[in-house]
Amino acid sequence: MASLRFPFSFSQTQPPHYSRPLSSFPVAAAVGATAVGATAAFAVLTSSSSSSSSHRQFLESALNFLFSSDRTSLPAWGTLSLADMSVPVVESKSGATFPSVLGDSQKLCGIGLRRKSVFGLKNIDVYAFGVYADDNDIKECLAGKFEKLSALELKGNKEFTEDILENDISMTVSLQIVYGRLSISSVRSAFEESVGSRLQKFGGSDNKELLQRFTAQFKDEIKIPKGSVINISREKGYVLRTSIDGQEVGSIQSKLLCKSILDLYLGEEPFDKQAKEDIELNLASYLQK
Ligand code: DAO
Ligand code: DAO
Question: Taking burial as the number of CB atoms within 10 A of a residue's CB, which of 52, 99, 225, 275 is the most buried?
């Protein structure tokens, strides 16, 4: 049943649970979102004192959604004003929680899990991630070019994804460490493999120095136990800034590095395919709003 496969639940004290959205997106998500809208509308209606305008907006769109006959124009999960409500979202496989808005302006577009195969024997869950983007930046950079296309047409549109990777749009990938025995040396070698291969793909072979500058930020003494939160942001002017548990560890200005990091989550071989689809659809929906 749709509601079981899409187990959001809203309440004032507990964050909603977000597991993977449905794979056959437009139709199935619309059905799933009906359940979400219903649950959310109920939770908001029954919470006595919350009458902020964002809650009203949310309620309005949930109700419009529920009673609309035109379900095809309904928003994707992330656009059901979750961000407007500032309700945290839980990645259900790991239990990691992500705020729906980061800073003042970056909205959650999708969440996923980074897994790694060890010696081809088993997969370990390394970290859960949430990808955030500034919707105003997206509009400013891309609305002119893509305004004629609907969000569903834009999802999976290679040019759109490429433009998200290339443009000066503020975005953050927030990683929450799930694996309890992560050492800095294994992190470094994983970067060399994942980020290194992208640097090579997009920039040619001469990028060892850039990768070294990036990994040199992560000193041996840094500890990243389970639950640590690492935020990697592309800021204006293609500055890639990294912080661990709110402490800045460094920044590097490089368009190529920004693109290579975002490609891990949005590129042709993403860590989590379902997350990529959600992220694309939500990014696309920000153009329409
Ligand atoms: O040797 O215990 C092990 C397995 C370690 C896998 C490490 C994967 C690291 C992935 C990058 C993490 C970035 C924070
Ligand atoms: O998952 O393979 C991967 C690479 C993730 C790249 C993100 C960089 C985060 C920096 C973490 C520093 C930890 C000391």
Answer: 275
How far apart, in whole angstroms, are the C-alpha atoms of residue 200 and residue 251? Answer: 21
Q: Report the predicted TM-score, pTM, of the whole model to 2 decimal places.
A: 0.77
238 vs 243: CA distance, rounded Å: 16
Single-letter amino acid, residue 68: S
Cβ 191 under 6 angstroms from ligand 2: yes
- How many angstroms separate the CA atoms of 268 and 62, rounded? 33
For 73-127, what is each residue's pLDDT tens digit?
Answer: 333 444 444 555 578 999 999 999 999 999 888 999 999 999 999 888 899 999 9
Q: Is the CB of 232 under 6 A from ligand 2?
A: yes
Atom nearest to 230 CA in ligand 1: 14
- Distance from the alpha carbon of residue 49 to the mean position of ligand 2, in angstroms: 42
Q: What's the gap in Å between 232 CA and the centre of ligand 2?
A: 8
Locate 18 and state its tokens: 């977000």
Whether residue 216 has its Cβ less than 6 Å from ligand 1:
no
pLDDT of residue 176: 98
Tokens of residue 102, six digits: 């980061």
Q: Is 190 in the pocket of ligand 1 (CB under 6 A)?
A: yes
Decide: 198 in ligand 2 pocket, CB within 6 A. no
Chain centre to alpha carbon of residue 11: 22
Residues in the chain where the model's pLDDT stays below 50:
1-81
